[in-house]
User: Which sequence fits this backbone?
């Protein structure tokens, strides 16, 4: 019998063919099943996102559990020994290997990152993190920090494994799926890493291990400074194991802070020539340079010298940001009879109090105005720390305030400061990169007034290829309009009109200092004011070239400026602007640029 089987040469190829056929059918069926499982899992991701955004953490956990069952089954279907054997077969093998790796990575992400995040979602809901009775619970933050940190590591490792999959021989549909998943992880990874870093520093920042002291800077945008407004009021917040205590508001004036003949911190290169005696000497001018790092360092040092209190960080907020935050609160009554809402706060704080307290006694007027300001700070803080807030509205308001650079934070701790930078609240000078050149456009009121409540501003950006060396020519246009009424000299409070007599100006003339920071390595080559070319002094702030212009506008008048800049390199980039946050929003638009009009420098 044995010899007869051997003599039948066709027997072994037939057996091999049968095995290959069975293997092919087995792998094919399981592959189709795995594909179905992964395709069933993917739509659930959108459902989970909607449920999380709606605050329905219980449904999100259930959906993620369903999602995990699909990815686990896909992994199981692509991990049996026959599948592994088939991976060595030419042509189809690389595809099978890629499918197995994709299924495994997907399951790791779902089970190791998404599922734990869904389980902790209720801990991370804004309502859970809101202060209540002046305190923030630290336990949920600490629990969430561990989970988010581990999930971030899982996603990071998954991204590396996904990028390592060899797709040189995979079919288009599979290659596309891998690329799509890689893009998803690339988008989620940085956000998850930032969340991990933020939650990692939060307990210490909230006094988990030792009390923290923070100086709060309240800016007044009606009197513009490069970072936003004059720093006219301060307060100390102490945080101890999540319990928050607000000290009394301290006005910058009335002798509350000393004036120094020299800057209390070392001046960065170029700052002395650019800002002179305004930098580092007076508490009311800590925001004169458009860097919150230097502003915070000055405020911290002056506070320590004045009160002997060590400061663990500095936070800045302006009235427009406070107005945004009041969207999340109930109306707040004041002893003056006023009621604070998101609509009423800014008109009252930046204009109404100056009109109301208008007498021949400027000192008494200033005291009354500061008293209202202090009560607004106290009552607003009390409402925001009470816990009776709408979490969704508060989150939206805070996001808008951060985007507009109206909330800024600084810490002397490098790790904490790095987190603030990643969140965009560090108030840094404009940062250019390989794709974007970013200029800074900054304003400073120059009459000692509160007239910027009536100022409208617009910025336009243009670029063109005008040079033989390939470097782009940029033009920054700045329009300022004084919207004070024509009869402002008699109809507007002197507290608003400011020191026009001292400055030798007619009442209601807005005189503004405009500074344009070019990207490091660029060159400022020319400027015009109201159509006429003007000479420029050579200024710089560290490695930023700076153009400095001064313009005056009578009521109803507009002043138009242009500044021409030559880019540092020949690569084409987008052009963006970082602008002082003012009372009224600044419009930013495109500016057509004719090379025939460009300054050559």
Assistant:
């Amino acid at each position: 019998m044995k010899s007869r089987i051997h003599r039948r040469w066709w027997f072994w190829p037939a057996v091999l063919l049968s095995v290959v056929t069975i293997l092919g059918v087995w792998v094919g069926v399981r592959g189709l099943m795995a594909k179905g499982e992964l395709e069933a899992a993917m739509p659930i991701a959108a459902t989970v996102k909607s449920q999380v955004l709606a605050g329905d953490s219980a449904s999100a956990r259930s959906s993620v559990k369903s999602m995990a069952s699909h990815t686990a089954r896909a992994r199981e279907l692509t991990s049996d020994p026959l599948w592994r054997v088939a991976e060595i077969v030419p042509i189809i093998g690389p595809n099978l290997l890629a499918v197995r790796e994709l299924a495994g990575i997907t399951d790791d992400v779902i089970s190791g990152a998404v599922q734990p995040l869904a389980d902790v979602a209720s801990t991370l809901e804004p309502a859970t993190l809101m202060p209540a009775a002046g305190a923030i619970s630290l336990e949920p933050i600490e629990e969430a920090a561990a989970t988010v940190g581990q999930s971030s590591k899982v996603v990071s490792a998954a991204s590396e494994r996904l990028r390592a999959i060899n797709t040189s021989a995979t079919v288009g549909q599979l290659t596309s799926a891998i690329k799509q998943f890689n893009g998803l992880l690339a988008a989620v990874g940085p956000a998850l890493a930032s969340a991990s870093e933020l939650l990692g520093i939060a307990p210490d920042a909230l006094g988990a291990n030792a009390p923290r002291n923070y100086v709060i800077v309240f800016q007044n945008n009606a009197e513009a400074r490069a970072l936003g407004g004059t720093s006219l009021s301060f307060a100390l917040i102490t945080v101890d194991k999540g319990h928050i205590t607000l000290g009394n508001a301290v006005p910058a004036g009335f002798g509350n802070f000393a004036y120094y003949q020299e800057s209390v911190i070392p001046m960065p290169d170029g700052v002395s020539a650019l800002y002179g005696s305004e930098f580092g000497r007076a508490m009311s001018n800590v925001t004169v340079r458009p860097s919150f790092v230097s502003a915070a360092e000055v405020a911290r040092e002056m506070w320590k010298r004045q009160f002997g209190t060590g400061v663990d960080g500095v936070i800045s907020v302006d009235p427009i940001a406070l107005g945004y935050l009041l969207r999340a609160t109930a109306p707040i009554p004041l002893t003056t009879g006023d009621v604070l809402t998101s609509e009423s706060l800014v008109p009252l704080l930046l204009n109404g109090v100056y009109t109301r307290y208008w007498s021949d006694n400027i000192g008494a007027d200033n005291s009354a105005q500061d008293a209202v300001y202090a009560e607004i700070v106290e009552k607003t803080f009390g409402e925001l720390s009470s816990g009776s807030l709408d979490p969704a509205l508060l989150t939206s308001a805070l996001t808008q305030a951060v985007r507009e650079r109206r909330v800024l934070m600084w810490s002397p701790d490098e790790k904490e400061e790095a987190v603030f930078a990643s969140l965009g609240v560090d108030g840094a000078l404009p940062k250019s990169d390989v794709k974007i050149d970013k200029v800074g456009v900054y304003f400073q009121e120059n009459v000692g007034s509160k007239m910027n409540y009536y100022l409208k501003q617009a910025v336009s950006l243009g670029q063109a290829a005008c040079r033989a060396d390939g470097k782009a020519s940029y033009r920054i246009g700045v329009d300022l309009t004084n919207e004070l009424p024509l009869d402002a000299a008699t109809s507007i409070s002197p507290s608003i009109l400011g020191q026009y007599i001292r400055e030798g100006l007619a009442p209601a003339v807005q005189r503004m200092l405009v500074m344009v920071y070019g990207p490091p390595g660029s060159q400022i080559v020319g400027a015009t004011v109201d159509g006429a070319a003007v000479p420029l002094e050579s200024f710089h702030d560290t490695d930023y070239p700076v153009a400095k212009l001064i313009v005056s506008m009578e009521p109803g008048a507009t002043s138009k400026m242009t500044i021409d800049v030559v880019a540092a390199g020949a690569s084409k980039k987008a052009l963006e602007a970082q602008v002082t946050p003012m009372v009224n929003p600044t419009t930013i638009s495109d500016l057509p640029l004719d090379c025939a009009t460009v300054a050559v420098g």
